Amino acid sequence: MDKVTSTAQHTWQQAVESVVSVLGDDDTQEILTGLRPLGSQGDTFTAEAVDRSCAETARKRCGKLLEGALVHHSGGSIRHLDITVARSGQQELFPTQRISSRPNRSTSDRAALQEKYTFDKFIVGASNQFAHAASVAVASQPGETYNPLFIYGGVGLGKTHLVCAIGNDVLDREPDTRVVYLSSDSFMNELIAALRRDRMDEFKRRFRKVDFLILDDVQFLAGRERTQEEFFHTFNSLYEARKQIVLTSDKFPKEIPGLEERLRNRFESGLIADIQAPDIETRLAILEKRAEIDGLALPSDVAMFLAENFESNVRELEGSLTRLSAHASLNGAPITIELARRVLKSFVDNRTARGITIELIQKAVSDYFHIQRADLLSKSRSRHITHPRQIAMYLCRNHTDASFPVIGDRFGGRDHTTVIHATQVISRRIKHDPTLRETIDKLATRLGGSE
Fold first, then answer.
1. Do strands 44-49 and 35-41 pair parallel, antiparallel, or not at all (unpaired)?
2. CA-CA distance, 188 to 168, in Å (whole number)?
3. What is the arithmetic mean of pLDDT over 407-414?
């Protein structure tokens, strides 16, 4: 087969990104990294696996979905996918492939940033407006206004999009800026490698001489004493040199267990911005934007169906559209509400079964303690009200995706620090109070969850 064309390469990369956005787990990404495109002949696209095991696993785990994505992104010119095995001795010819939706975060500058993540492709709504505004400000004046910038929120809400957009914007305006973007795990792995090879001076130069450091998933620093110590010194060095630091986490700094107090203080010394689950208007706008980018004809009733059933995770919302479009393309059918209900039935049923909301928790707690729901939202500081209120806040934090600010707002407009305090109090007491433990278990059972 001839050398793979740029068009075939582009189609393959789009298909891979679609599969990753739907399946998303690390194992799938490892499988896809073991494949490389060879190109197409007729209506068949051929990909080569590094070995037989990789080929068999790819066919079983994601072969049909990958084939459907290729059909979609080729405009129907591709109808089949053939996964072959590299000939003996050819495995070393495989490039070090990196799936763009999970970049190589140990590489500096543009190579580690996802170019598709820009500010103009980020849909702004009430749930992320503050984080977006802060990100734009940091990109325009690095090291001047908000340093560090700490963005936190649940999985799949757009944190990676925002921080990549910051890095891309900075490099678009100042290409010589030294930007490093990596995960906490990558930081730790590079530290371990430097220690093993006795190259700590090189490690320190790499991270303490940058202009802009973006560290993703800082919650994974928890419990890693040597890594925390080295990052503490890196943080101080950059901060004192007025270099910009951007951090992301799925937790508020005070909620990260096993994090040294001195690092927690550093994280809280700048601006903290949270990203919440998007409201329905924002979810609809996200779907319309994604459909426009992918060239899909998305009926309004289908968009509403998706927006109503995928509420708490932007990644899953976009993944539902990708899965739906792949099925439609594979079967040569238009996207309709009937197709959406059939294709996504298992996902929708699963979500409906575990749809615990703040309101449901408030009702369950008020019924259990024989008080009114309005009492939980009131300003009362009576013990027989504050205790159930703290339990309700604890359950909201553990059984919903709501952030501290959102929970506080739904409990009579309270500050997020009140919710943090409540969850910490219950978390401590539950370890030593069997009666409280039993109460939490009973409430969790009523809600259909478990502790």
1. antiparallel
2. 24
3. 87
